[in-house]
Amino acid sequence: MAQTDNKRFFENLSGAGKAIAVLTSGGDAQGMNAAVRAVVRMGIYVGAKVYFVHEGYQGMVDGGDNIKEATWESVSSMLQMGGTVIGSARCKDFRMHEGRLKAAHNLVQRGITNLCVIGGDGSLTGANLFREEWSGLLAELVQQGLIDEEASQKYSALHIVGMVGSIDNDFCGTDMTIGTDSALHRIIEVVDAIMTTAQSHQRTFVLEVMGRHCGYLALVSALACGADWVLIPEMPPEDGWEEKMCQKLSATRSRGSRLNIIIVAEGAIDRHGKAITSSIVKDLVVQRLGFDTRVTILGHVQRGGTPSAFDRILASRMGVEAVLALLETTANTPACVVSLCGNQSVRLPLMECVQMTQQVQKAMDEKRFEEAVQLRGRSFENNLKTYKLLAHRKPESELPQSNFNVAVLNVGAPAAGMNAAVRSAVRVGISEGHKMFAVSDGFEGFYKGQIKEIKWADVGGWTGQGGSLLGTKRTLPAKHIDKIAEQMRKYNINALLVIGGFETCDRIKQSASGTKHRVFIIETMGGYCGYLASVGGLAAGADAAYIFEEPFDIRDLQSNVEHLTEKMKTSIQRGLVLRNENSNENYTTDFIYQLYSEEGKGVFDCRKNVLGHMQQGGAPSPFDRNFGTKIAAKAMQWISKKLNESYRKDEGRVFANTEDSACLLGMRRRALVFQPVVQLRDETDFVHRIPKEQWWLKLRPLMKILAKYKTSYDISDSGQLEHVVLNRPKQSEAMAAI
Fold it and tell me: Which residues form the signal peptide (predicted)?
C-alpha cells in the first residue's frame, strides 16, 4: 500500500533495540489476556523485545523468573480465556520506596524502559509515580553500586502507557473499560434466567451487582433488562424513596406483570450516606407489600468466564495502540492511557484521567451527586436519563399535550435489539405526549392496514426478547406507496420511525483447541458486507477473513495456506479461516475448504461450518439492548422536535418537505449523527447494499498483524494526545450522546 500525504503508516515506527514489559495489576477483568496478546505480538512485530511481568507489581519487585521474555507462541490460545494468565496481585511492597527501587533495578538489568500497565486507577497511578521517580531511583542504584553510570544514562527515561482493565467501568476518559461488557453479559444471563422463575411464582427479585464506588454495571443492566428500580452510589434516591419504590412495584403488578426486578449496586447509598443493601430492600418489599421476595448476590461470577467479542476487540485494539504510543513517545511525553471514544481509539494523559476519576468520589463524599454523574461522563449521564425516562411513567396530567401520531415499524431481516429499540421509542413517544402506533410485518403490514395503537404497558418485557415482536419483512415500499399513503391518512400518521437494515466463531475455535493441527473454515452472513467476518475474525484470532470489499484471487488463497502451514510446522497451532457469504462467487466456502484440505495434507486437517441464521437468533446482548434503547430514544426526541418545527397551527397540519425531514441515525466516529437520506445516494453502493466507505476496514490489518502477516496499517487516526474535557450539556442536549 503506497503512502499518501494524508495517511501515516506504522512501518515508519521501529521497535528495534527497545524492550517492552507488560503486566496486569489489581482486580482481574475478562479481556486482559487479549490485551496482553496484542501487546506481545505487536511489540515483536515491530522488532522490540517483549517481557511478561508475572503477578503484577509484586513480580516486578521480586524479579527473577517473574520477568520473562515473551514469544509469539507464548500468547497462542489465550484470546478466549478469562482472567489474566500472567497473574495479578495487590502489592504492598511497590507502595514503598524500597520496593520501587528493587523494581527499577530489575527492569534496568533487562534493559526495559517501556512499560504497559493493564489495571485500574490505583495501578495506573502507581505506574505514573514510578515514572516520576525513575531518574532518582537510577541515581540511588548508581550510588549503591548496583548499576553503572553508563546504564543510568542509557536507560534514563521510563515510558508508560496504560490500559484500563476494570469490570466497573469506573475510569473517566473512556467510554468502556476492558472487562465491562463481559461482566454485563454475566449479569444479563443471570437476570434472564431469574425472570423466568420469578414470573412462574410471581416473585420479586433483588439482584446485587458489583460496583462499590461506581454504579455503571447496575445502571446499564437495569436499562438492558427493563428493571423496575435501580440503586447506585452516584445518584442516591430522594428521601421517601421507599414509598415511591413500593408504589412503582405495586403499579407494575396491577398492570398484569407477574414479577419485579430490582438491581442494587454493592455501593448503593441514600442521600445521607447510609448504605442501602440488597437485604434492606428485600425486607422493605416484604414488610410493605407482602410480595414473595428473593435476593441474589452475583459476586465474583461477574469477573469470570469467557470474554465477550466486544472485550476481545476492544482489548486487541488497545494493545496495538499501546505499543504504537510507546514507539512514538519521547522523554517529554506524559504517561498516557489508551481508551475508546465512540468507535475510535484515543490517547489521554494518564493523570488527567486519574484526577477526574478521583473527583467523582470526592463529589460523592461531599454529596454533590449531580456533579458526580456529570464527572462520570456523557455516556453514564445519558444512561441514567434514559433509564429514568423509560422506567418511570409520568401521570397523564403531567405529560405534554401533543396532537401527533407516530408509527413504529421494523423492516428487513430480524436483528437482536430491535425489540429494545421499539420499547424505547414507544415509551419516549408517550412521554413526549404522542399517540404511538405499531405496524406489524414491516411495509407489507403497513399497506395492508396492520396498524394499531400501542400503549406503555404493551412493550413491558420486550428488552430481552430476540427477533422482532412486531414482525418484519423485506418488502420494499415503492410498489405500494399509494396504499401506504392511504393508511397514513386513515390513521393520521405524522411521523415514521423505521428500525431495520438496508431494506459465533468463538465456540468453534475452542473446539479446535482440543485438537492439534486443525483448521476450521467458517462461513458468516452479511450479504456483501464483510463486517461480521472481519470483526469476528479479530475477536476470535482468525488467520484469514475473506470479504467482498477486499478482492482476492487464487494467489492470495495459496499464500494464506502456505502461511498457515508454516505456522503449524513450527508450533502446536489451531487455525480459523472466515469467509463472508458473498465474498466471491467462484471461491466458495466449499472451494476454500477443499483447497485448504488438499494443500494442508500431512500438516493439518480441516473442518467446515456454515453458521447461517443462528447468527440472527437468540437473546440480544447487553450492548444491543443498551444501544437499541438509547438510539431509539434519541430518534424519538428528534422526531418530536421536527414535528413541532414543521407544524402549522393555522392549518392544523404537519409540512415536512425539506431534506432533513427524513434522516438516518447512526454512529460516525465519535458521535451519533442524523444524516438526510437523500445524501446517502452518493455514499451507497446500492447494487451490493453497502456503504462505499467502511470505517471498520481499518481494523482488518490488525487481524493480519496478530496472525503474523506482514502488512500495512494506517495509523492516521492514532498518535494524537488529547485532553480530558468535562462536558456539561444543556438540558436540550440531554440525549445528545451515548
Answer: none
